[in-house]
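Data deposition worksheet. Section B asks for the primary sequence of the deposited chain exactly as it was used as input, without tags or linkers unless they were present during the calculation. Section C holds the resulting structure in token form. Section D is free text for depositor observations; keep each observation to a single sentence. Incomplete worksheets are returned to the depositor.
Section A, Depositor: J.P.
Section B:
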Amino acid sequence: MAREFPTGANAFFAHAGVIAALNQATGWTLSVFAYIHDNNVRPFFARYSPGFIFQYAGGTALNLYNAAWLGGPAGIANNAFNHYAAIANGGSSQIRINGGGYVTGDTGGGATGGTFKIGGRGDGYQMYGFMCEAAMWNAVLTDSEIRALSRRVSPAVVRPTALVGYWPLWGNGVPEIDCSRTRIPIPSAGGTVPNKAYAHFAGSPMAL
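Section C:
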């Protein structure tokens, strides 16, 4: 199952207190599956502004902002589910697609301020398509852990002691539930995010 994100105003999720647990000193990881309909800028996660942004950048690339921009690897196919991961760790920040090809660079220091958002930035840029298995860790995940996530292993069993947010995005209610130990449901940002799910996410995540 995956949550549909339409093009209506503020049709994404936002919560002011969700990411208080992220620790810039130890680094953090973001992970999500997304199905993107077009070639426009489509955010996955944001805490803006100032803060961080992890998004599809249009064309075939990703980018990550964490005080500076890091351009991601190419090879994204629209109208198909792909796994995207971002690791912010000072000078060794990374962006990964489907557990494989990645780019490494320096995205700068701490990213603070702003409301945490899934599927939007709050400045007109929003997701258009489907997302599921959105998660974040207060830790730098290993290559093998990122590959496991890309192969649909549930975030709930990947470094669970560092998991500070896990929203399956089932698309059957608002707010969306948080299945991490933090247990912070994330509400709509004010627009209409319809209770509509994409039921054909190939290879459902591993059941617990």
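Section D:
The chain has one domain: 2-198.
The CA atoms of residues 62 and 155 lie 21 Å apart.
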